[in-house]
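ok so I'm stuck.
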Amino acid sequence: MKCIVGLGNPGSKYTYTRHNIGFLAIDALAEKHGIKLTESKFKALFGTGTINGERVVLVKPLTYMNASGEAVRPLLDFYKIETEDMLIIYDDLDLPLSKMRLRSKGSAGGHNGVKSLIQHLGTQEIKRLKLGIGRPPAPIQVIDWVLMPFAKNEQHELKEVLEQAANVAADFVDTPFLALMNRYN
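replied:
not stuck anymore, here's the structure
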């Protein structure tokens, strides 16, 4: 079984913000593969289904970004999923909106959701799909930028990157990660 986790913040006021691009990617993946996220326990909203012939659990932590690990650790334990069978999807300031990057491990790089996962899982070897949200234009501060909704003129790019992220996440299920990185990076 594979686990795909989108990072974000719960609540309608955060739904379409830049920091919630991980949640939006999970929604796109779930819709594409007919998986309903209806289970709510372990401080997470999740659903199980099949992608490319493999059982998967799609997860949106409901702990707020900074405590994502509190939701993911018990879910992995419950389903007996190894960290190596998990992919996390989250926002990255250092990539423009239309870009994404796969990484097999690394530090949190200043991302508090990833920091929480590393802390609760006890490893930096976490497969990740980073989706660009770009840097804020002056004088906007980073904290304000990540909590801003995407602009109207960004909607087309956002739709495209979410479709691509759903494709990458689906391929993660049955493709060795190095091959996945070579295909999409």
